[in-house]
Amino acid sequence: xxxxxxxxxxxxxxVIMDGNGRWAQQRMLKRIIGHQRGxxxxxxxxxxxxxxxxxxxxxxxxxxxxxxxxxxxxxxxxTLLKKYIRQETARMMRKNIRYNVIGDRSELPDDVNExxxxxxxxxxxxxxxxxxxALSYGGRQELCxxxxxxxxxxxxxxxxxxxxxxxxxxxxxxxGGLPDPDFLIRTSGEMRISNFLLWQLxxxxxxxxxxxxxxxxxxxxxxxxxxxxxxxxxxxxxxDQITQRGTLLNA
Length: 251
Ligand code: IPE
Ligand code: IPE
Ligand code: MG
Prior knowledge:
The protein is of the alpha/beta class.
């Protein structure tokens, strides 16, 4: 296993969990079996991230565009989600993990929303890792919702256009209060963002692996995190400036 520097882990890790369907189809299994196996990988990553001391873990579990999949698959995913939350809440309590959800919850079935509310409520006082599930989530839709709420506040006189800064705008996003992801992992070989966290990924380090989500292992997670630790994040500055800053910080 790769040696990880506990001081240089991402504060916020985001994951696009992709490849469940292909994992199943390659084995002549139904796609939903791939989703079930994917749920096991979710358990592992949640446990590992929390053990490593990562403060924020955000998982892309169901996109706004995933509603266009066959109704049978959508229904099965909603059932699986409910079952997962119900089964895992006790473990989240033991591990001091707090649930959070981003996305358009008005599109989710009532029973799923009830299960989510219960889990969010139960874990609300937990002080460990924040586990954010992106459900019925799309980055463009989130930006539109934020713009609409901003416009509403402008119309009602709560703010004027001159007040709109990046910090203020951010507070209107579903992720208001969360730091931007430092590291994004996408499995299954696709090298795209698929409408995930469009605003928040501005300076995120990206990592792509060919492994399908059900096959993603602890070893691979550690390998990805080791890769993150080898990156120089410059945020528009020069490499020299970053080295200097590091020297000052370590002095
Ligand atoms: C990711 O796996 C899970 C969801 C999008 C819900 P996919 O279902 O997208 O798997 P592939 O990409 O078809 O293999
Ligand atoms: C992104 O995967 C959404 C989730 C992982 C939940 P998709 O499988 O929906 O993305 P595309 O369609 O291949 O871009
Ligand atoms: Mg996919």
